[in-house]
Amino acid sequence: MNYTLNQLRIFRKIVQMESISKAAKELHLSQPAVSIQLKNLQEQFDVPLTEVIGRKLYVTDFGREIAESADKIISEAYDMKHKSLAHKGYITGRIKFTIASTAKYVTPYFISEFLNEHKGIDLKMDVTNKTRVIESLENNEVDFAMVSVLPDNLKIERIELLQNKLFLVGNKQLSEKGKHIDSKDLEKLTLIFREKGSATRAAMQEFIEKNQLKIQKEIELTSNEAVKQAVIAGLGYYIMPLIGIKNELQNGDLHIIPLKQLPITTEWNLIWLENKKFSPAAEAFKEFLEENKSRIIDERFSWFENYK
User: Fold this and answer.
1) Burial class (CB in 10 A: 0-12, 13-18, 19+), 190
2) How many folded domains does the chain comprise?
3) Are 32 and 80 contained in the same domain?
4) Is there a single domain that holds both residue 239 and residue 172?
5) Do 64 and 100 lie in a common domain?
6) Do 158 and 296 share a structural domain?
7) Which residues are CB-contacts of 243 (< 8 A; sequence separation ≥ 6)?
8) What is the pLDDT of residues 89-119, one digit of tens each?
9) Distance (Å, rounded) from C-alpha 42 to C-alpha 65?
10) Which of these three, 37, 68, 85, is where a domain ends?
11) 178 and 147 housed in the same domain
12) Which pLDDT score is estimated for 122?
């Protein structure tokens, strides 16, 4: 047997998603790369792990047994690593995060220093939309979540971090620097939206409903990067979180269009379930953040205050 931990990890995700393409998306890999790893793993066994009927992939009973074994093998591998480091006096373990997609521009700055100090701690971070973030937290699949809109139906505790400011943004050709427009002017523009379940989309919709606007034309895209590129290309305008466009503002690819009713301001929060029983690693991170959040904000996000 010459299978690898990586092959087992990928196969476990295929079983979970019951789809190679969905597994590839979750793992941030290409579909061919996942298919190759499945093929290499299958070559270790004479019995099929999966079968394809029509265009749908099915996991065989044997495949599910191998996936269960894979869970145990991967868990044991992590345990061996952590036990070795624990004997050297390190805090060990894994911290699991789920974060809203825009939070990927925020969260790493609050984690990197901590992980550099604690070599025995691993990080697993799922970047997704608000709906999935709340589901993961509610199901107790993660230690922490990073959100800009607090959930209504969960008892949580939190650490407030920094403001999340949303401005109307256009490209150089579409914007007239310094010219203020009114909310009613948005009715004449093509607006770009994130998919349903996105906190940014929810903020835009709330703004539109509050101002009783009738949007004539809209475009929907499913990632912040896709939206950003669409705005740069001149496809339309977007009410966009400031945190994700620092470089584009500085190099002139994007421009903030002054709108009297903006910015929309929310707050980035690290949240966790009330009465959550943390591992030593997660508890150490929470204590680190409480002690160092103000310094990190001053060092990493001072540019933020230039936009009001």
Assistant:
1) middle
2) 3
3) yes
4) yes
5) no
6) yes
7) 102, 105, 106, 164, 165, 304
8) 566 778 999 998 888 889 999 999 999 988 8
9) 13
10) 85
11) no
12) 85
* Model pLDDT for residues 52-89, shown as the tens digit of each residue: 888 889 999 999 999 988 888 877 776 666 566 655 65
Residue 192 maps to which CATH number?
A: 3.40.190.10
Question: Minimal CA–CA distance to 237: which of 290, 279, 283, 183?
Answer: 183
Residue recorded with tokens 């996105």: 198
**The one-letter amino acid at 80:** M
**C-alpha 166 chain-centroid distance:** 18
Provide the residue range defining the domain that includes 297: 90-162+267-306
- Per-residue tokens: 197: 């379940």
Kindly tell me the burial class for residue 193, based on how many C-beta atoms sit within 10 Å of its own C-beta (0-12, 13-18, 19 or more). Answer: buried
* Average pLDDT of span 210-229: 82
Taking CA atoms, 67 is separated from 52, 70, 130, in Å, by 18, 5, 29
pLDDT band per the 50, 70, 90 thresholds, residue 251? confident
Compute the average pLDDT of residues 219-243. Answer: 85
pTM value is 0.67
36 and 67 housed in the same domain = yes
Helix (H, G, I), strand (E, B) or coil at 139: coil
